[in-house]
Design goal:
The chain has 388 residues and is mostly helical. Helix content is 76%, strand content 0%. The chain is built from 22 helices and no strands. The longest helix is centred in the first third of the chain and has 20 residues. The N terminus and C terminus are likely disordered.
Length: 388
């Protein structure tokens, strides 16, 4: 890996030297664009695109490169519009179609991306393989876990899955609570590529379930370096920081998690309990209300909100939320804990323990042998639950 990076870096220097002697060489600039993008030298890549787009005869190849640059910069809306314009003009090839499917996926249009990717899977070569991986990710993000995993297991014998495919499948298996397969597939992915994103998230979350904070931290840090805008990774890091009682760092990680993954109820609720543990019931209330807006039928959101409202001396509102929660789920322990608060039993650590176990054991880190994140709240949150 290091040798490859050094070779690519050397090539970047060589190409820049050649270009200084022949600045109008289109082929040199195209090569420099590609190597610069691979090295993360976005400004240098952008300068080549600017040159290409300023030429009297604007070649389609440079428009493609501009779109690829937009994708690398996360400007997926611009990339999608550029791709649609190319297709409308008749430049409709497999690579363009794949990039369109990928931008749709990145923009959250998962159903459209899935349909586009499915059409490309039969294609030979790299496009077909990339389309299959994208389709698998679409299955995951659409919560079609059984269908996706069945397709993966059927394809294992035919496709000789890449490390990336093993990694995607490992995270799907984890979410489907097929933990043995999840662990084995993640290890298979990392054997082939130690930087495979989904496998790092999977192994980090499994380590979190074992309360192995150093290992979980290491895996999530690696994943964040690879994809710093990934909400799921930041959510895992946030729960890891909670487990180690680093509440300020957990708060920061939760902020990033909900920024990049704003529609995940469990992360909003986790953030609320983090704020509650920090003695910030108003901030906890805000987080629980955000979770509630995403799904009014989830008892835990109502029960958690009831706890925050009770701490804020809003007994009528707290009682109402607790009642709704218990109607949705008579076993909702956060609602029971809210009732303890309303009855003046804020210091009842047993009630707090049961409430914590109820929510935190539902977080994806559960399912492993040993303790869960609830144990953190038992020792730390119960004491903070009492009024000063």
């Amino acid at each position: 890996m290091v040798q490859a990076q050094m070779a690519s870096s050397d090539r970047l220097t060589v190409l820049q030297g050649f270009l200084a002697q022949d600045p109008s060489n289109d082929r040199l600039r195209a090569d420099l664009f590609q190597v610069a993008l691979e090295q993360g030298e976005v400004d240098l890549a952008n300068r080549q695109v600017e040159w290409g787009m300023q030429q009297p005869i604007q070649e389609v190849a440079w428009r493609h490169r501009q779109i690829v640059l937009w994708m690398a910069q996360g400007c997926f809306g611009d990339a999608r519009d550029g791709l649609l314009a190319l297709i409308a003009e008749g430049h409709d090839d497999l690579t363009t179609r794949y990039n369109l499917a990928y931008t749709q996926f990145a923009l959250g249009a998962v159903s459209n991306a899935r349909e586009e990717a499915a059409l490309l899977i039969p294609a030979d070569g790299e496009v077909g393989e990339l389309a299959w991986l994208l389709w698998l990710r679409c299955e995951h993000h659409s919560s079609r876990l059984d269908e996706g995993l069945q397709a993966f297991t059927e394809a294992m014998a035919k496709r000789n899955p890449s490390p990336e495919a093993w990694g995607v499948a490992s995270l799907m298996a984890f979410d489907a609570e097929r933990l043995d397969e999840s662990r084995a597939w993640a290890e298979r992915a990392l054997e082939g590529d130690p930087r495979q994103l989904e496998a790092l998230v999977t192994t980090g979350t499994l380590a979190l379930g074992r309360q192995d904070v150093p290992e979980a931290t290491r895996r999530f840090e690696q994943a964040i370096q690879l994809k710093p805008l990934d909400g799921r990774t930041w959510s895992g890091m946030a729960f890891t920081k909670m487990l180690s009682l680093d509440i300020p760092s957990a708060q920061t990680a939760f902020e990033k998690a909900v920024t990049y993954m704003p529609f995940h109820i469990g992360t909003w609720i986790g953030m609320g309990w983090c704020e509650f543990m920090a003695g910030r019931p108003e901030a906890a209330r805000d987080a629980f209300e955000r979770a509630l807006k995403l799904d009014h039928s989830f008892a835990e959101s109502h029960g958690s909100l009831a706890v925050a409202l009770a701490r804020l001396d809003l007994p009528e509102a707290a009682a109402t939320e607790a009642k709704v929660a218990l109607k949705l789920d008579p076993r909702c322990l956060s609602a029971r804990y809210a009732q303890h608060l309303l009855e003046g039993e804020a210091g009842d650590s047993d009630a707090f323990a049961r409430m914590a176990q109820r929510y935190l054991s539902q977080h994806p880190v559960a399912g492993e042998e040993g303790k869960t994140l609830a144990d953190v709240v038992l020792k730390y949150g119960a004491n903070r639950a009492t009024r000063p």
